[in-house]
Amino acid sequence: MSAHADTHAHDDHGHHHKETFITKYIFSQDHKMIAKQYLITGTIMGIIGVMMSLMFRMQIAWPEQPNVLFEALLGKWAPDGVMDADIYLALVTIHGTIMVFFVLTAGLSGTFSNLLIPLQIGARDMASGFLNMVSYWLFFLSSVIMVLSLFVEAGPAAAGWTIYPPLSALPMAQPGSGMGMTLWLVSMAIFIASSLLGSLNYIVTVINLRTKGMSMTRLPLTIWAFFVTAIIGVVSFPVLLSAALLLIMDRSFGTSFFLSDIFIQGEVLHYQGGSPVLFEHLFWFLGHPEVYIVLLPALGITSEIIATNSRKPIFGYRAMVASILAIAFLSTIVWGHHMFVSGMNPFLGSVFTFTTLLIAIPSAVKAFNYITTLWKGNLQMNPAMLFSIGLVSTFITGGLTGIILGDSALDINVHDTYFVVAHFHLVMGISALYGMFAGIYHWFPKMFGRMMNKKLGYLHFWITAICAYGVFFPMHFIGMAGLPRRYYTNSNFPLFDDLANVNVVITIFALVGGAFQLVFLYNFFVSIFYGKKAEQNPWKSNTLEWTTPVEHIHGNWPGAIPHVHRWAYDYSKPGHELDFVPQNVPMKEGEEELQH
Amino acid sequence: MTALLTILIVFFVAVAIWQMVKIFDLASVGADNAQIATDKDNKLNGYLMMAFLVFIYAITIVCIYKWGDLPLLSNSASEHGSQIDTLMIISLVIIFIVQTVTQFLLHYFAFKYKGEKGKKALFYADNNTLEAIWTIIPVITLAGLIIYGLFTWSSIMNVNEDEDPLVIELYAQQFNWKARYAGQDNVLGKANVRLIDIDRANILGVDESDPNAQDDIITTELHLPVGRPVLFKMRSQDVLHSAYMPHFRAQMNCVPGMITQFGFTPSVTTAEMRQNPDIIEKVANINKIRVENKAEIEAKGQDLRYEFDYLLLCNKICGKSHYNMQMKIIVETQEEYDAWIKEQKTFKNSLIN
C-alpha cells in the first residue's frame, strides 16, 4: 500500500489537503477524476472516429459524387467536394486506429478500470495515484498527436490501421507514409507507454489493495475482467512498441528489419534481407490480444450489469472466471490466423487454425452463462441492461462467423473482404461499444452524482441496435461475394455492380445510427449538469462502489473502508427480505456462502 | 445525389434533435420520475426485445434470399473450390442453427422474465451438468470442423509437384499485375528487382544470363489451360499486394523480398462459365443496372455492356489506386491456350538491345 493511500487510511474523517482547481480537475491523482478524464477524451476521439466512418461510408455508397460535407470537412482533400482516393485510405486508417486504441482501449479500460477497481475492491485509490495521472496525460498527449497528424501537408497515415510495411515505410509508396506516419508511430509509442503504466497500476492495485474479506473468489467479474485485461496488455503491448521502434529505424535510419528488394518509382532501394512478414507477426502478437483487451472489459461490465438487473446471481461464476483466463491465455497464441495467406508456412496455418477455433469454447460458455442468468430472473430493463443484452446478441452474431475466418481453408476466399469487416465490427467493435454505453448508463450516477434520462437511453439503444445489424449483417454477404475491403470505389469492377445497392442500404443505416448517437451525447452532457440527483444505490446493487457517498470525496469512504463478507452476487437469496445483499453485509447466523 | 444526401442528413439530424428535446422535456416534468426502469418500462422493452428478435430473423432471411447465393458463393471454377464451398456451407448451416436458437433464447428470456414489482428472481447460481453440456457440445462440433478444415487446408496448400504443374509467376507492382510464364522448359528464370532495366524493357528484373530465363514469357493477361494444375509463384516489387482470384477460391499475398506460392487446377473455361445459368442471370442483372447508370459509366469511359470474365484482384491495401489493380484471367482449352502462348514474345526477344 502506498504512503499516499496510507495517509488516508488514518485520516478517516475526511480532512483533506486543500485542492486547487488544477490539482482537482487537471492534474488530478484521484482515480475517479482520472476516469472522467479518460471518458471525456475517449468520447471526443469517438466522435472523430465515427465521423470519419460516416464520410467513407458515403464515398462507398455514392462513389466520387460531390458532397458538401466532404468539401467542408476535408478541404483540399476533396476538390469540388469529390473525396480523394488517398484521403479515403487515410480516413479508413485513422478510423481504425482511433476506434481500436483511443476509444475502445483507453476510453473503455481507462474509464472503467480507473473508476471501478478501487471502488469495487475497497481501496482508497490506485496503488500509485501519480503514475495514474501520468498515464492519463500520456494518453492525452498521444491523442493530441494523432489528431494533429490529420493536418500535416501530405496527409495522415493511410496504410491501414495495421500499418504493414513497406507501404507504411516508404513515403514514395504513399504520401501518408511521410510525416503522417511518423506522427502515427510517435503517437502510438506514447499511447503504449500510457497503457503500460495504467495496466501495471491496475494489476498492482487488484493484487495488493483489496479490503479485508475481498478474496479473489469474491471479486466482482468486472474486476476479474479488468485485471486479466491489464495482464494481457502488459504482455502484448511491448511487442507492438518494439515493432513500431523497428519500423522507425527502417524509416529513418536505413535499417532493413522489414524491407528487402524494393524497386519503386524507377529506383532500387538499398534495403536487403528484411521481411514484412516479420512485422505482421510482431503486429498481430499485440493485434490479436488487443481484440480481447477491448472485449474483456466490456464482458466484465456486462456480467455485472446483467446480474444486477436480472436480480439474480451471475450463472456459473467460476466458469466465467475460468473462461476469462482461458480466453486470455489462448488470445496470445492465435495471432497467426490474421496471416493464413501472408506467405507463412502452411503448417503454421494449421496450428493457428487449431488454437483459434479453441477460443470458441470459452466464448460459448460465456454466452450460455449470460443467457442462463436471464432465465427466471426479474429483469429490470434499464438502458444499461438493454445495452448488455445487446452486447450478448452482437457477441454471438459476430463471434459465430469467427468459426469461418479462423478456419484457414475458408479464410482463403474471404480474407480481407467485407466479411472480415462485418465479423470484427460486430464481435469487438459494436460489442465493446455496447459495453461502454452500458457502463456509462450504469455508473453515471457514481461518476457524476446524477441520473441519465432513461427514455433517451431507450431511444438511443433501440435505434443503435437496429442500425448496427442493418450496417453489419448485409456486409457479410457482400464479403462472401468477394468484395475486397479498403477499395475507394467498386465502380472499376462491373462484376460488383449488383452489390452497389447493398452498399447504399448499409450507408443509410450507418448515417441514421451515427445521427442518433447525438441523442446519447445530448443525454450525457445535459445530465451531467441537469440530470436528476442520484440516490446512493440506485440500481440496488451489491458491489462496494455503491456504499460510497454520492458526492465524491478523496479517499472514497468517509469512515473506515467496509469489510467484505460475501461474494458480489447474492441477489434474491432465499432467507433475505430484500432482493439484494451488499457485499459488506455480514453473514446471518447459519447462512452459508455458496461454493462458487 | 449530393442534394439528396444533404437533405437526408439534415432531416435525420433534425428528427434526432426534435425527438431528444421533446422526450427530455416530457421526461423531466413529473418529480416522481426516478430514471429507473418501472414495470411499464420493463413491459415495453420486453415486447421490443421480441420485436427485435423478429427483426434479426427478418434481416437474415432477406439477406439470404436476396444475396445468399451470389454466383461467387457457388460455381467455383477450380477443382479444390468445391471442397471449400462444401466446408463453407456446412459451417454456415451450423452457424445459422446456433444463431437462430441462441438469439431466440436470449430475446425470449428478456421478454418472458421482464421485471415486475414484488416478484423475486430464482436464486440459481451454478449447475455443473449444464456447464459441462455447453462446454462439450462446442468441443465436439469444433473438433469436427477443425479436422475437416485442416484436411481441406493441407490438401489445398500442399502442391503436388509430381503432377507437372504449369509454373507461372504473378508479379505485382503499384498498381498492376504481370504474369511470367516459365516457357518450354517450365522453369522460371532467376529474377531480382535489382536487375530491372527499364531502358532495355527488362521490367521484372529477370536474369538475362540465366538459360532458364530465355524462354520465359511476360504477359498482361493471364491465360490458363483448363484441367491442368497451375502453380503460381508470387512476387512483388514494392509493397505488399495480394493476388485474389475469388472465382477460383484462391488467394496469396505478394511479399517484397520473398516468393510465395499457391496452386490450383482451373476446372471451367471462361466460355463455359458464361453459359452457366447463374452467371447469365447475374450478367443480365448487372447489365440492367448499368443501363440505368448509363451516363456515369460512359463519363468514366467504361464499356457499357458487361461480359463475364474471371479476375485477379489486389486484396491487400497497396496505395492510392489499390481499388483498380486488376488483371483479366482467361481459362480456355489446351488448344486455344497453345495458340495464344505461341503468339507471345519470349523474354529473350522482348529485350531492347
From TrEMBL, chain A:
**Any one Pfam family match given in the protein's UniProt record, by short name:** COX1
| Any Gene Ontology CC annotation | membrane
What membrane topology does the annotation report for this chain? Multi-pass membrane protein
Enumerate the transmembrane spans. Answer: 38-60, 87-117, 138-164, 184-209, 221-249, 282-303, 315-335, 347-372, 384-406, 418-444, 456-482, 502-530
Q: Does the keyword DNA damage apply?
A: no
Alphabetized PANTHER family for the sequence: CYTOCHROME C OXIDASE SUBUNIT 1 (PTHR10422)
The molecule here is called: Cytochrome c oxidase subunit I
Specify the species.
Mangrovimonas spongiae
From TrEMBL, chain B:
Q: Name one GO biological process term.
A: ATP synthesis coupled electron transport
Enzyme Commission number(s): 7.1.1.9
Provide the Cytochrome oxidase subunit II copper A binding domain boundaries. Answer: 163-343
Q: Which residues cross the membrane?
A: 6-24, 44-67, 87-111, 132-151
Identify the taxonomic lineage of the organism of origin.
Answer: Bacteria, Pseudomonadati, Bacteroidota, Flavobacteriia, Flavobacteriales
| Membrane topology term | Multi-pass membrane protein
Q: Entry's Pfam families? A: COX2_TM
Q: Which GO terms describe its molecular function?
A: copper ion binding; cytochrome-c oxidase activity
- Coiled-coil region(s) at which residues? none
Q: What is its main location?
A: membrane
Keyword list, A-Z: Electron transport, Membrane, Respiratory chain, Translocase, Transmembrane, Transmembrane helix, Transport
Query: Which domain of life does this protein belong to?
Result: Bacteria
* Residue ranges occupied by any Cytochrome oxidase subunit II transmembrane region profile domain in the UniProt entry: 64-160
Q: What is this protein called?
A: cytochrome-c oxidase
Q: InterPro entries per the record?
A: CcO_II (IPR045187), CcO_II-like_C (IPR002429), Cupredoxin (IPR008972), Cyt_c_oxidase_su2_TM_dom (IPR011759), Cyt_c_oxidase_su2_TM_sf (IPR036257)
Per the record, the similarity remark reads: Belongs to the cytochrome c oxidase subunit 2 family.
Organism expressing this protein natively: Mangrovimonas spongiae
Give the top-level enzyme category: translocase
Q: Which GO terms describe its cellular component?
A: membrane
Q: Where in the cell is it found?
A: Membrane
